Amino acid sequence: MVSIGHDEFEALRKSLSAATAQGLYETYRISQNTWYKLRDGKPVKRKTLDQLRARYRALSRSD
Question: What is the pTM of this model?
Fold first, then answer.
């Protein structure tokens, strides 16, 4: 299990269209529960975080 820092969370948040269940899934393919854990500095599965970071990088390249 791993967590992320405040700066990384803020970068993810800025690329998010809406912090709703639908917006989170469409953007990062994560649940609202996972988002709340990241926001609160709680750990999530390493695989989930790796996939989230990969999705973020892919979205950043397409802008």
Answer: 0.88
